[in-house]
Amino acid sequence: MLKIAIIGLGNRGGKYARQIKNSGEAEITAICEKNPALLEGARVTCGVAKENAFLSDDDFFRRGKLADALVVATQDRDHYRHAISALKLGYHLLLEKPVSPVLSECEEIAALAREKNLSAVVCHVLRYSPFYDEIKKTINRGDIGGVVSLTDTENVGYWHFSHSYVRGNWHSEQESGPSILAKCCHDLDIIGYLSGQKCAEVFSSGSRRLFLRENAPERAADYCLDPCPERKSCPYDVKKIYYGITRHTIPKMGAHIKVITGMPNPKISDLKEALKTSPYGRCVYKCGNDVMENQTVAMKLENGVNANLTMTAFSKGCFRRLHISGTKGEIIGIDAEHKFKINIFGGASRTARVRGGGIFGHLGGDRMLVLDFIKFLKTGEKTERLSTIDATLESHRIAFAAEESRKTGKAVLLLH
Ligand SMILES: NC(=O)c1ccc[n+]([C@@H]2O[C@H](COP(=O)([O-])OP(=O)(O)OC[C@H]3O[C@@H](n4cnc5c(N)ncnc54)[C@H](O)[C@@H]3O)[C@@H](O)[C@H]2O)c1
């Protein structure tokens, strides 16, 4: 049985733990999580021995190698030191994205993995979801001819954006990284993966329009539950976002409620109590956030193909809309609908329907990533979609270049 350890048992780490357990192909032999309640919850669920459950990352790494591979699911700016420590001990890695918000750190991790002959797979989960998998097969078969342009609109969802990029972990460039990296390295990776092309030149612009202190209504309280007279009309009221949800508001954010309370099995009363003082209970206009709410990235790929990515906070749903034009036809689809249309010029149109899970499991991508990773480590079988660090750093390079372009107002050349 393959042995896997996990560091960071929050939202993502908890999901990977479940997928690893459900696979029946690997066992979780060690875990490290700095929140005692989450550590103990995960320890019991995963059946990990007490001596292999660590509150401190120093203690965990000091114990040496306790598994074949380590899942690194801590926060963005912790990945570097956790990945480097793990590689030095000889762990293969399943590494959450972004690899790091610092390009040189990403490159250092990749170089050390190469030097040690260890595998580092990045959690670019979209590649593994049936929707994108089927689109890749359609392109590979030549159904739409040669790809000439790709347009991807990443609709983050107003409720998701407020949770993660205004109130939450990814609200500050300094603390995590820019939203084009944190949210859209997935999109930049998918564009490169589907086109099979590197990016030669990037131009990007971005904006922040809504979540600004000057937009706070005059009588708005600092916390929704303070109480605030604006709650009834505000779509970002915590009741509408996290509980008391109706079909007109948002999907149930179960895992996010664990993040807010820091508890493995929170009750609604725990959530309400936490929201009185938690960063997630704050007025969305008073969060000190600075990451872009909207950003467009225009890319010229190495073979002259054009690609465009637009990320926006302002959509009701959380979905990506793709339009890929080829010389013989086009693909148009919305990933959350689990289907896309293939229109052949001068020929028939058809709709491809795919299986797939909900948005919180990345449409089935989380599960397939874990299965592919385990299979790869056990058999050495490398699928085309396997998101090795060398294959996926391109997405990060484009994100860093997009940020440079946004800040300087100039196009950035990636290939000369
Ligand atoms: N692949 C994807 O689509 C996807 C989606 C969401 C988040 N992410 C990424 O996954 C990572 C984790 O995100 P999350 O949503 O699970 O966050 P989270 O805050 O829920 O989980 C992180 C966990 O790591 C723990 N932790 C932090 N520092 C630690 C340390 N030094 N030692 C031990 N434990 C420590 C925290 O207590 C927390 O429980 C982030 O890098 C994030 O950007 C990826």
List the helices and strands and how they pair.
Blueprint: E1 2-7, H1 11-23, E2 26-32, H2 36-46, E3 53-54, H3 57-62, E4 69-72, H4 79-89, E5 92-95, H5 103-116, E6 120-122, H6 130-140, E7 147-155, H7 158-166, H8 179-182, H9 185-195, E8 199-207, H10 238-242, H11 254-261, H12 268-275, E9 294-301, E10 306-312, E11 319-326, E12 329-334, E13 339-344, E14 349-353, H13 365-379, H14 389-408, E15 412-413
Parallel strand pairs: 1-2, 1-4, 2-3, 4-5, 5-6, 7-10
Antiparallel strand pairs: 7-11, 8-9, 8-15, 9-10, 11-12, 12-13, 13-14
Helix pairs in contact: 1-13, 4-5, 5-14, 6-9, 9-14, 11-12
The chain binds nicotinamide-adenine-dinucleotide (NAD).
Provide structural commentary:
This protein is 35% helix and 21% strand. α1 crosses α13, α4 packs parallel to α5 and α6 packs parallel to α9. The chain is built from 14 helices and 15 strands. It is globular and about 60 Å long. The chain has 3 domains: 121 residues, NAD(P)-binding Rossmann-like Domain (Rossmann fold); 179 residues, Dihydrodipicolinate Reductase, domain 2, CATH 3.30.360; 69 residues, no CATH class. Strands 14-13-12-11-7-10-9-8-15 form a 9-stranded mixed sheet. A 6-stranded parallel sheet has the order 3-2-1-4-5-6, sandwiched between helices. The protein has 416 residues and is of the alpha/beta class. The chain binds nicotinamide-adenine-dinucleotide.
